[in-house]
Write a structure and sequence with these properties.
This protein is mainly beta. Helix content is 0%, strand content 54%.
Length: 281
């Protein structure tokens, strides 16, 4: 039987500003979870998405770097239960990597004007109230699109917190957390940065994200640890803003690369930035 009790706790995260690789910060003042011995309980957030953007992933904040979340799913509504919603994409066995903000890459999905839900399934837990794995959240005075689904059919129960869950959108080659404006009004990074690949480790497809503080010539490439070029991903002038380029885990000849550590290298104007990436097969 899938059932459980909701817990709210502040001890694990406290009052924190958790910053994404894009520079966006999320205010966290509590942890929300469900004590469900048999597992299967979900924390869900609703999004009203206009037509146009391409969804390439989701982000959420976890209180425990050791937690493995059995499933993260992107669902299409409208729906009153998660079981009646259409599954657009899902990733299983998601675990944070060295940071509380978790980024989950999804196959690119063109958004239409529709209701979408991100459902994060929590692992089984026998811990008491105010303990166990959960997601970061900010208290609000009334429900605003965040839900718990702990019944067998996944009925959505509104909760008065704003779960720290976001869609990662791509528009005209740029990425931005949901809720920000499009390219004409998008926030420009204060300085050029490279955040590396997502997910990391990646089985094959990885999204390499970076930001430019002004328009400039750019070269983005993947190298092995010996410094030899593996794949040129992008070269040429690019506008200021947030960008994402996909690497399919292949070399310049179209061959799958071996499992191991690789280096993403961004040459942007006079800056040279690098980030390690892991391909795990």
């Amino acid at each position: 039987m899938r059932s459980g009790r909701t817990f709210l706790g502040a001890a694990s995260l406290g009052m924190l500003l958790v910053t994404a690789s894009s520079g966006q910060a999320t205010l966290i003042d509590q942890v929300v979870g469900v004590v469900a011995p048999d597992g299967g309980a979900q924390l869900v957030k609703h999004f009203s998405v206009p037509a146009g953007p391409v969804i390439v992933g989701v982000e959420f904040v976890s209180n425990d770097l050791g937690t493995v979340f059995p499933r993260v799913a992107l669902l299409q509504g409208p729906a009153k239960t998660t079981s009646e919603a259409q599954v657009l994409a899902e990733v299983k066995n998601v675990q944070p990597v060295l940071k509380h903000r978790v980024q989950v890459a999804l196959p690119a999905i063109s958004a239409k004007a529709q209701d979408l839900y991100v459902a994060v399934t929590l692992p089984a837990s026998s811990n008491g109230v105010r303990e166990g794995p959960g997601l970061g959240a900010l208290h609000v005075t009334e429900p605003n699109g965040s839900y718990i689904a702990s019944s067998p059919d996944g009925s959505l129960q509104a909760i008065d917190v704003n779960l720290a869950i976001a869609l990662i959108l791509q528009t005209a080659g740029k990425t931005m957390p949901s809720g920000e404006q499009g390219p004409d009004g998008a926030k420009i990074p204060k300085e050029t940065f490279l955040s590396g690949g997502s997910p990391n480790p990646a089985a094959s497809l990885a999204h390499v994200q970076f930001g430019l503080d002004r328009r400039m010539p750019v070269k983005l490439a993947i190298y092995n640890v010996a410094g030899r070029l593996v794949r040129l991903l992008a070269e040429g002038p690019m506008d200021a803003g947030l960008h994402v380029v996909d690497w399919d885990g292949k070399d310049e000849r179209g061959r799958d690369v071996a499992a191991g550590v690789y280096v993403a290298k961004l040459q942007a104007g006079e800056k040279v930035l690098t980030q390690k990436m892991v391909i795990a097969k």
